[in-house]
Specification:
Strand content: 25-35%
Radius of gyration: 14 Å
Order of helices and strands: EHHEEHHE
Distance between the termini: 13 Å
Structural class: alpha+beta
Number of strands: 4
Helix content: 25-40%
């Protein structure tokens, strides 16, 4: 499982220009089952995506399709983690549970 932390590196006005494409990117990966949750940081300095993938390399490849990446609007920090405790309703997303 991965936490993808996006940090905007340009003005919010510029970020807003790419929101429709970014939302399309998110929908594609929710449909494929890679994304579990996403949303804005507060204050609005970027966003967070919780994702499932076989490897960090797969996440790196997924990110390359994001309009924020393509147009260099955000930096991405990827953290892999292995959940050891979780709500039973979340069990569906946990490997080897």
């Amino acid at each position: 499982m991965f936490i993808i932390s996006l940090t905007y590196k340009t003005s919010l006005e510029n970020v807003e220009r790419f929101i429709p494409e970014h939302n399309h990117f998110l929908e594609q990966h929710y449909s494929s089952g890679n994304f579990i949750a996403s949303g804005r940081k507060e204050p609005r300095t970027g966003g967070i995506i919780v994702a499932i993938a076989r490897s960090k390399h797969e996440i790196d490849e997924i990110i390359k399709d994001d309009s924020f990446y393509i147009h260099q609007v955000a930096d991405y920090d990827i953290t892999e983690f292995i959940p050891s405790k979780y709500n039973e309703h979340f069990k569906f997303f946990i490997k080897n549970s």
